[in-house]
């Protein structure tokens, strides 16, 4: 589309919105779980939207997907079995498979249509669904996690925002189930929203996890297409403290954002974030 | 204004724009140098715009102003004389005066109307123009810097984007003048734009400074109202390497973003930024 200007708008707060100019809306559908769209933006490449919110773009997906994966997988001394809850775009899965110790990644995605459409429209991100070390399970992560015990080294909770299908993934009963699904030296990570716009979400997640895990460490990355750019993840661990991981154990991993220095740098919190979760 | 929706739009790239809902446009004027506006936004408080670009908002100004000030002033072992070029909102000046060693801050701002309007509309940020340790000079920083030699411990180049009056502040001849204005153990810092949208600016600044200073260290902060959120500064030093500053010399300084851990954390660069400036 050239003559007609087509813009996608995301209301990030009631008084603050972001707009992307589109070449084309490639696909829309109402799945059993959410409204799904694939759009082609001028400046960020193709993007997946769920319920009108940008989830992933070709231009900056690597930041989120590397940071939700390489921090926990580099923190764990020997990650062999990994569970991803959500992660339907396939980016976290792709990063997990860069670890030669990883024998199998189970990915539990509630919405099969997310996987199907990412494979079709975002093949560079969704590149590893057919990898023999990957096992896709189309099921509600909340239900699946109750069926496993002491099975995983690392659990990655790669969810959308705490509205719609992902609400309970931000609540304590779910984290109890994750703790049970982990081995005795296991660790989990979840995305915990923008500390700039939604510090309450981060505070709630950290508080709930501190009741269940001896080591809880929030960390940050800058993701331009997410509200405010400042994005948080929270790592919770039964044994290993990521800040005690020796530098010489960390490797370069064919990444564009993550690197061994960032492994430590990401845990440095701005003063207002540090104070808010004390 | 309630019934009428009033929105301010900033085109951050040709296909990506950000909009803030406004309560009111408080002031507009054409100064001899630029178009100046003060607006009252719903979600970021009052804001200063120059030539249609958001410079500073009440909600997140502290991030930029702390990071352009506390990193260089904490890196220098004994900052006594500081020069700010630009900085008309007064935020960097306010932060400089938190250092008890600082005897005088000279602030050279080309546009007196920026200072006058910030003092009127953003008094919490522009709070120290009348401090006895502050000296305001309304002059072109490019001209002023040629008149001084070996005078400053720290020079802070707090400029707007490299369009309009600030273009030459991103070029080598100016940096040569800054080097001359610094004492033998002095250091400078400048804002060097978004590495996500404008990596060429950062690359050019770093390259020019590496020709003139033995130590050049870019660092980052997350500033939600600036394009992409990811913002760079570049520190260039004649002697001190900030990464060699001992932890015990760093103090807490009544800040909301900066803290002693952030002093080191800010220098950790994402892999794509690191590679781009190699």
TrEMBL record, chains A, B:
Source species, domain of life: Bacteria
Residues at the catalytic site: 158 (proton acceptor)
Statement: the UniProt record of this protein carries the keyword Transmembrane: no
Ligand binding (spermidine): 89, 158-161
EC class (word): transferase
Name of the protein in its database record: Polyamine aminopropyltransferase
InterPro entries documented for this protein: PABS, PABS_CS, SAM-dependent_MTases_sf, Spermi_synthase, Spermidine_synt_N, Spermidine_synt_N_sf
